[in-house]
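Open question from group meeting: does this chain pack into something compact, or does most of it stay loose? Before anyone orders reagents, we agreed to write out a predicted structure and look at it together. Recording both the input and the output here so the notebook holds the full record.
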Amino acid sequence: MISYHRDLAVLAAAGSALVLDTSGPGLPAVLHWGADPGGLGDPEELRLALSPGWPVASVDQPVLLRLVPQQADGWTGRPGITSHRDGAHPHLRLELTEPISHAKGEAGDGRAVILAADPVAGVSVRTDVEMDPFGVVRIRHAVGNTGPGVLTLDGAACLLPAGEQATEVLDFTGRWANERRPQRRPLHHGLTLRESRRGRTGHDATGLLAVGQPGLGFRHGQVWAVHTGWSGNHLHYAERIPEHSPVLGGGELLGSGEIRLAPGQTYRTPWTYFAWSGAGLDGLSERLHRHLRARPGHPRTPRPVTLNTWEAVYFDHRLDTLTDLAGRAAQVGVERFVLDDGWFTGRRDDTAGLGDWTVDPHLWPYGLHPLVNRVKALGMQFGLWVEPEMVNPGSDLARTHPDWLLTAPGRPAPAARHQQVLDLARPEAYAHIAERLYTLIDEYGIDYLKWDHNRDLLEAVHHGGAGVHTQTAAVYRLLDELRAQHPGLEIESCSSGGARIDYGILERTDRMWASDTNDPLERQQIQRWTGLLVPPELVGCHVGEATAHTTGRTASLSIRLATALFGHAGIEWDLTRCPDEELEQLAAWVRLHKRLRPLLHGGTTIRADHPDSAAWLHGVIAEDRRHAVFNLVQLTASTESVPGRLRLPGLDPNLTYTVTVRPEIRATQAHPSTAVPWITRGTVHATGSVLDTVGLAAPLLDPEQCLLLEVLAD
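Structure tokens returned:
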């Protein structure tokens, strides 16, 4: 909701508020973003109460943070927009050209529309600011060239202030098969900047950059966070200067000369998302998850249990093996069968075939029809792996059209996985790939594409200039057109695992692959932190082989099942080699997942601040708080002989619950002398208040063991 109070614009929802001072001729100043104070009282008194003094030995005016801060405001931090005309007019002085208006946002939210310009510099700026019903703010700018000649745009970021209480910063890094590793440190004066120049989001991308009160946890502390919804080069930053409280910013990272606007042209930034929580990181996740779930295009149907063939057969595609695998998959309850890499011409390893998107006639003399028909006869959907943005240099496509590569002529980028990038901003290349995808989808009735993207975009050049922006926009257009032409088609975003996870790609896809590792111990951490940004139903989580091919670690079936339960569940395993006992366990797990699916994919994610760092306790609670599921995961050996109690947060304190140990996933206790009575019995009754504040006696588990608890109101 948005309201106006004598030169104050207030966006408020779900306990969060953004207060803008619209009294001056310049862009609005941000007076407050954070907890909703409720009634603001007299606007003049509020403005007086919040007006700072002049900074010492600086400008002779208060330094206010405007929606596009510039040096004309006395702002010495990063400017909001930087542009020039062949070096002239490097500093903007934006003033309103129309009174601030408000309109319905894309999700029915209140939106403030701010129109401003610098007529001397020949620049116009439209800023959209909206807050959804869950308190998530998103901002974007449209920068236009209203003057003569070319306007070069060097950068355009969206930013908001955090509270002075924010003295700690949390961001993330990672690598292949080891994504989203948290980093925490003090927030000092200066710039904490995270840039991605990979041409994709990146394994090391922060995803979410947060600042908060010192020692903030999952269930306590104020926290402010920013996310840039863009899949190309991008930036996130936190900045603190002596004249102002911390600010958070994000936007597209533009290459040299990448955006040059002719007279009348406009550049629009990606949406940048901001969220505040007064209840720790879980409160942040709840807002962001609700935001995504409210999208018109968010997946509504039950997320099909998926079998992906990669770790089952790799490149060894044989019809008899794959039809046998499909039969085993249907036997355990799989609902979607996905044929991974290796089905197209010349593809025996990763050195050949990319770009030649025709079914290999030697492997598949009758095309994919025999396999597709068998899969659909078994009642499963059929999915196919593709990597449309890439080519192998030895492919027919690359040999025929070397000018279609996203490189400078005669200067190919360093090879990565034996691949180069196809310039989809070239109309001919775009049309070729679109035609091949349409043909495959229509011929085989494909329900699902696993869309991969296996390399960084290095030295990306389009028509002689920086090419990441145009490539990203072309990929978005291709995905949008595919979905428009095939409304029932679902698409998974995979990028050598979790290297392209952001709200830009998620506007166009239905699932994301969090990591190429199915090692459950690694996956526990990857899924835990991926879940800050996206809800479980969008995160592919698969049960793999006992010995993970990415780490060589061997894990029990129970922890593999428990880890894959909390997401869009699937299997990546050669079931033809499984004994009957394992198939029965898998079938029981699939039945459990299907029964819990409405809860897991619609409830509130909970991560307890468990006192023992050797174990994690997490779960999902239904909106009415009458149903929940929790998982205790022992990561390493505890130093406690008798572990601390399990406190289950988030339940209704006034309800009585039955807590049941789920037999489908139950740890084999290595210490029978330490058996816990209520776990031995299998159930216990307690109020939500007791479960939250007092807790339950915990078992002593060995490393990589787990305990799954279902909680139902009596």
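Observations to bring back to the group:
Residues 103-108 have pLDDT under 50 and may be disordered.
The longest helix spans residues 580-600.
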